[in-house]
């Protein structure tokens, strides 16, 4: 028997005339026919990547500590106190022992004069840092273009400098981008202080129509030319690739097909002159939010960014308040991983940019950052680590490491290096690597407007 529903305040009539079950209609979004309430289905490829990145993130913090010293060395006895300041969660003496797990990154040696253990970076770690710096410098013109497109997506043509600074590494910007990018290109950017607040803003000088082309538009053109799809079907569609185990019912498949054909305004288009109160405008704005997040991820170096950093641009780009629920509504386009920081960090991936945990179109900066993850994953058994160094003890009266074997005097990096070089053609022996890595520090981001439970 056909059941018809009239418009109410909390229930909208579906666009299709075909009957839908009552339970399906009750969970419909007010502005689209895609079910709003969706259970998150885990994709272990992305989650395993985040688990590996958790190790890389800690290693990066220790790296920064060592490189911040004038001699680029630190005594082992200081790592415990410094780790507590960083909030890394180490117990007493655990921070020093943690360094021994990564002999391809950290080198433990005995100081020839002080006769205590020191730590410095290995040659391979220094080489990786230098390669990342070179790749960052080489892609700087592309980073300028990415920043221009990012500011153009805002409603007012301006973004807070602090919000861009927090996400600078995701967009391939150097640490001093305020001077090396913004002030260096006055024909593109303008930096000013807001009168009503103590905040600096980046403003676009002039909108370039050639830059107002979304990445998804290029994908649609390629799909149309290569696969010969119907132009009407791909005109407003997105690439959808659901995670393994995602249940796609008959009505859900129809809802997605309808949603793919809904027109929307471009993220670079100014919508201030439109009446956004109608149902059609709500549908377009919701799909425009999907396109905005899609373009935001496409502008990043590794096609991923934390959910907390996307929230920084929420007001400037008309994004929904409950971002996590909104992204879970479109699991075929995005993937939200809660792994890697005990559920406190949400990382959003662009699904179409990855295949089997690998970035489909890698760039030099991505590859340079990936090398650090390779060094972290290399087994400690493949390095010449003196096992007796692990048995050191801390004197209760002297804050120095003692009980070091007297004949351990080899300070040369070559004698402490790995037994063989890392293969760069993708063939590695003794370990498997199914995902990419990022070498950015996780800054303290602003909390989301509403704290969400970790699934």
Automatic annotation (TrEMBL):
<dbReference type="InterPro" id="IPR021099">
    <property type="entry name" value="PORR_domain"/>
</dbReference>
<dbReference type="Pfam" id="PF11955">
    <property type="entry name" value="PORR"/>
</dbReference>
<dbReference type="InterPro" id="IPR045040">
    <property type="entry name" value="PORR_fam"/>
</dbReference>
<feature type="domain" description="PORR">
    <location>
        <begin position="41"/>
        <end position="379"/>
    </location>
</feature>
<dbReference type="GO" id="GO:0003723">
    <property type="term" value="F:RNA binding"/>
</dbReference>
<protein>
    <submittedName>
        <fullName>Protein ROOT PRIMORDIUM DEFECTIVE 1</fullName>
    </submittedName>
</protein>
